[in-house]
Design goal:
With about 350 residues, the protein is α/β, with parallel strands linked by helices. The chain is built from 14 helices and nine strands. The strands form three sheets. Strands 2-3-6-1-7 form a five-stranded parallel sheet, sandwiched between helices. The chain has a two-stranded antiparallel ribbon with strand order 4-5. Strand 4 and strand 5 form a beta hairpin.
């Protein structure tokens, strides 16, 4: 009997790597059917029909054949957002067709010279589709991790990728790298390679400054505009102005800056309130550990009252920016500088 393999996971890099291991270094007779663009029932049925036709057709000129049906986002258990909340993404028609296809595979496993690989982000393992395949298929499932476990795994992967590229991270630099790039494995690999190209060929380590200079946010990781928020947290007006200048002129500058500044001040306010209540650690789980340490340090530059006023002013600023027909960039510069500037303490005479 040939091979039937079902690989499930939301990290497409890990899923693809698992599939490629089963393909070998030089796959012969490979037919790939990509279902990533099948967003409606009609396209999903067409993709399913193509996978069925490939599975049912024996190798012709090549001695072996592999069908890889990849990026199948409409298996049972796939969820989509609707007005009523989470809804099943798979229509009854498609679900029934999938069940028939699974029954066909179970009743007619591929011969020794054929392999069928299915990769998808999600699959309900108690579904009829999964149950029908279990007797004949190998299942590889990459379970979703909790935030803390995912961050630890991302740090390990970043260090492994760096070692493969011929360098190591300085203490603290790996944490900075993951905080900036995010947890997407493919993005981590791409940014490590970019960092390697940026470093001097003889360099054996990467510093946090190197990461700040070249690394970019990865898939699913919101651009943090670190220079702006760090300057605001430090209450360094000169650094804030310099950081804002680097973004000035970009489309949507005013809305973007007020949004990240309001979010950042809200985070500082949360941590400052926890610090004053003696419950700082209660906030730790909501942040990347590296980011949390930085926020705790910056929160000491502000009083609780100052942060509350700053957030109120930023919320008002955002309303003005959204409704403004022009000159919003100057307004953002002026207001952020006023918020950042430390109050003058007058001595009593």
């Amino acid at each position: 009997m040939g091979t039937v393999c079902v690989i499930i996971g939301k990290d497409d890099f890990l899923v693809d790597e698992a599939a490629k291991k089963r393909l070998g270094t030089d796959p012969v007779g490979l037919e790939v059917i990509d279902a990533s663009q099948a967003s409606n029932a009609e396209d999903q049925m067409k993709s399913l029909a193509a996978a069925d036709a490939s599975f049912s057709t024996p190798p012709f000129l090549d001695p072996v054949k592999t069908t890889w049906w990849r990026n199948v986002k409409f298996l049972p258990g796939a969820r989509a957002k609707s007005e009523d909340g989470a809804a099943d993404k798979t229509s009854a028609e498609v679900k029934a067709a999938l069940e028939r296809f699974a029954a066909k595979i179970a009743a007619n496993p591929p011969p020794d010279n054929q392999t069928f690989i299915l990769t998808a982000p999600t699959l309900l393992m108690t579904s009829v589709f999964a149950k029908r395949l279990k007797p004949v298929a190998e299942f590889v499932v990459f379970a979703e991790q909790k935030d803390r476990d995912r961050r630890a795994s991302s740090l390990d992967r970043a260090r492994e990728f760096a070692a493969e590229a011929g360098f190591a991270f300085d203490p603290g630099a790996a944490e900075t790298f993951v905080a900036r790039v995010g947890d997407d494995t493919r993005s981590l690999l791409q940014e490590v390679r970019k960092l390697r190209d940026y470093l001097d060929p003889a360099a054996q380590t990467a510093t946090a400054a190197d990461v700040a200079a070249i690394s970019s946010p990865g898939v699913g990781n919101e651009s943090p505009a670190w220079d702006v928020t760090d300057a605001l947290g430090a209450r360094d007006v000169a650094a804030l102005v310099a950081a804002l200048r680097r973004f000035e002129g970009e489309n949507g500058f005013a809305v973007f800056m007020t949004t990240i500044a309001e979010k950042y001040v809200r985070q500082l306010l949360e941590i400052k309130a926890a610090q004053e209540a003696g419950r700082t650690d209660d906030c730790a789980g909501a942040f990347n550990p590296f980011v949390f340490r930085k926020l705790c340090g910056f929160a000491r530059n502000w009083t609780l009252a100052e942060l509350r006023r700053a957030r109120e002013r930023l919320m008002l600023l955002r309303e003005k920016v959204v409704s403004s027909n022009g000159a919003a960039d100057t307004l953002v510069f002026t207001e952020l500088i006023r918020i950042c500037r430390r109050p003058v303490r007058r001595e009593r005479g």
